[in-house]
Each structure stands twice: as C-alpha cells, then as structure tokens.
Amino acid sequence: MQLEDELGDILQKARDGKSWSSGDLARITGLSEDDVQRIESYQWVPDDSVLLKLAEALTLNGPALINIAREQWVPQEPAIDPKFDLVCLKVFMGEYPVNCYLLRCKETGETAVVDTGANPKTIINKACNMGVRPNKILLTHAHPDHAGGLGELDSAFDCPTFIDHNEPKPRGSRNIKIVRDGDLIELGKLRIRCMETPGHTAGGVSYLINQTLISGDVIFAGSMGRANSSWNDLFNSITQKVLRLPDATGLHPGHGPSTTVGQEKEHNPFFVGRV
Predict the structure, then answer these.
(1) The domain that contains 159 carries what CATH number?
(2) For residue 223, what are the contacts with CB-CB under 8 A and spacing of at least 6?
(3) Which of these, 150, 164, 175, lies nearest to 201 by C-alpha position?
(4) What is the pLDDT of residues 231-266, one digit of tens each?
(5) Which domain range does residue 53 map to?
(6) S-S: 193 plus which of 166, 182, 208, 223, CB 3.0-4.6 Å?
C-alpha cells in the first residue's frame, strides 16, 4: 500500500515543528523558495545531496528521508493476533480514504467499530456480512473524516460511543462514554487500554489490545500526523508513548498502511535515533 505521506508532506510537517515558513527553510538550506514550494507540492524530488541538506535543517534522518522520497521503503504487515479479528475498511470522505476498523473478539464474537468514517455504509454492510452486531463505537478523535458517520452507526447498532475527555463531543450518539488515559474497555474476553495521544487533536486517544495499537492520526507509516492541536504534544505522544511499546507492536493508523513500532524506529525520518 502506498504511504500516506510523500516527501512534500513530511517537509511541511517538519517545518511546522520549527514554526518555519517555506521562505525560512529556503534561506537556511540555500534553496530558492520556489524550489522548496515545488518539492512540497510534489512537483520535484531533488537529488540526494539536497535531500540530506533538507533533512539536516529539519532534524530528520537523511537516509530514511531519501528512502521515502525514492519510494524504496514500505512497511511489512504486523503479525496477526490469534485472540481477535481486526478488519480494516476504507471509508471515504469524498475521494479521501479513511481507515476504519471492526474489532471482533474471537472467543465471544463481541465486536466494536473503531472510527466511523464520514459515510459508514461500508461498515454496516461488512458487519452484516460477518454476522456481527457491534456493541461499542470507539473514536480516536472527533474530526469529521473519523466521526462523521456516528449518527448513522448509532441508529444502526444502538450502542455507546467512547471518546476521550479532552475531545469535543461529536454529534450523533445518544450514549457518550468518556475515557481517560489508562482506562480499560471490555470487549468479550479482550481488554482494550485507552492511551491518550494528544497533538493531532487535544483529546486524541489510541486503543491498545495486547500488542496491537489502533492509533488514529497520531503516527503514519514513515511520518506523523498533522499537529492541529500541538506539535510538541504530538511528538511527545509518539516518542514517549507509542514508540515505547514493544517493537513487535502493530500500529494501525487512520490513513495509510499498517506498520510496527520497530519498523518506525528504523525507517521513520522523524524518529530514527530519537527514541
């Protein structure tokens, strides 16, 4: 699967972390501002010497950045946990795909939806085909591409919706349940641990089941989410929480392919050598 972020996205997010404009990056690297803008708008991939200069200025790992720019790395799929099924569904907001998940305890069949997408008919149809009726909806955050279908799913399944205490409460649920860092949610024989991972939004939360983390828009394979709330909070959520999990932990993000903690520590230009 193609990575969610390309070279231009990574440079923009790294600039955000330094509160730099494209002009600032141009002055520091000796490039023209037009060249920086061409790179960030996917019009030009420069040679390796320029990529290394950009990486040094932005505190990114140069070899990892080159591998992504040259499309020479994609993550391997995480191991499958024998205790549950995790079905990833592409639910579109316009033409933009969002990863939504059906999580089913194999022993009991109890099922949860993790994020709704904006148009959740795909989730409803898949649940029907699987012969399950979800009894929980877990939201990683309240952005419309992740929670816009809440009302339709609430009507279809009449079940509670879980969201972090710091996140704005989305419309559509008749039964909101508030979670905090470290809370446990039971799903059949599974115990889902809530891990607050703010930064993309103030109340972002990831859900840990054994060695599987459903992480929303905190971290992407080879990149990080956009820091709509706080860049420092997002960076710390990743370096102090997500990437402190065991290397084999599967990361299942809101966009792009799944990955693992170990692969991100080795290949993500934001985090190589920084955890």
Answers:
(1) 3.60.15.10
(2) 3, 4, 5, 9, 10, 13, 68, 268, 269, 270
(3) 164
(4) 999 999 999 999 999 999 999 999 999 999 999 999
(5) 7-69
(6) 208
